What we know:
Helices cover 33% and strands 19% of the residues.
Amino acid sequence: xxxxxxxxxxxxxxxxxxxxxxxxxxxxxxxxxxxxxxxxxxxxxxxxxxxxxxxxxxxxxxxxxxxxxxxxxxxxxxxxxxxxxxxxxxxxxxxxxxxxxxxxxxxxxxxxxxxxxxxxxxxxxxxxxxxxxxxxxxxxxxxxxxxxxxxxxxxxxxxxxxxxxxxxxxxxxxxxxxxxxxxxxxxxxxxxxxxxxxxxxxxxxxxxxxxxxxxxxxxxxxxxxxxxxxxxxxxxxxxxxxxxxxxxxxxxxxxxxx
Length: 258
């Protein structure tokens, strides 16, 4: 059995992504050990959870995230797009999120930025992590290597990692040059060779985003320490726990390394 299930934007297969509803569902699943969420800043500098650079898809608001004040953002409906059950679900500040998960889940916190979209976002996020005493429970990741360099410059104790949708030949060298020991990679680009080399180099790998059992098993078989990042922790559980338990009872299911 692989070591970890990581809930992508919370249990986002069931609840609206990056909301407290999705976070709580993830915390209720005993097999979820990690949670991945995205952080951006309001116009007045409040860090909060949202993935897209615009409000359009996951709220009833419109326009760029960076142009909105938190007072207005806090009133938006961030749940109805998913289901009427979640009508009125609100956006979540980073402070409230960290308060909820501290001591319960490890956190992959993606800093959503590009170029100079959010000047100072790294310092703001680090300040919140330190405020909650979670330096050892959080890894800060980003597609933006400049943001990762800023994190390392501000605080060299907090772990960092590259997010990438590709497999450049110098990938591990890039990680070393950044002082990072975490790789968040699209599962389509992960190979047994890369997984082995990363493990040998002391780099933790998270494969995203996998929602079918067949792909989960294929990735897990590459190395037992890979984090399986999924919108569907229930599928992870069915794949690695429930089928395995059924096999041990009835003797017809085998999976895993000997």
